[in-house]
Amino acid sequence: MNILTVTRLMYFMNDKTSFWAPLSLFVGFFYLIQIQTIQRLKDERDNMLQKNQQMQRELDVLRRRRSRKGDTGFSLTFAAFAGLIGVLVGLLLSLIFSSPPATA
User: Fold this and answer.
1) What are the φ/ψ torsions at residue 19 (nearest 5 degrees)?
2) 23 has pLDDT over 70
3) Under 8 Å between Cβ of 9 and 27
């Protein structure tokens, strides 16, 4: 039932008896509010479903990217470990080949 039908129903009820006119207006208004509330809730549900589907697609894309990245190249842990070993070897060589301190 749409707004136009509710409006026609209210006018029909008002024309029949003037005693029921305030009640028919109240019932019609209450019914209109219910329709609007249901429509708003349906719109919110549809929006949430769309957001959920979009997030699911983004999650799938991220999972595919992560699985592709794991197959190629060196891992970050290996690169950090190799860098640490390089720094330690550099410090060791600098200590070995440094000239002895001058004594006064």
Assistant:
1) -65, -40
2) no
3) no
Residue 58 per-residue DSSP state: H
Q: Token pair for residue 18?
A: 């003037």
pLDDT of residue 83: 95
Instruction: Give, in order, the Cα–Cα distances in Å from 59 to each of 29, 46, 50, 52, 83.
Output: 45, 20, 14, 10, 33
Residue 47: what pLDDT?
97
Q: Is the pLDDT of residue 76 over 60?
A: yes
DSSP letter for 102, please: P
Sign of CA dihedral 90, 93, 99, 103: positive
**Once rounded to an integer, what is the mean pLDDT over residues 63-75?**
72
Give how far Cα 84 sits from Cα of 49, 81, 91, Å.
49, 5, 11
Q: CA–CA distance from 103 to each of 18, 95, 97 (Å)?
A: 118, 18, 18
So what's the pLDDT on residue 22? 62
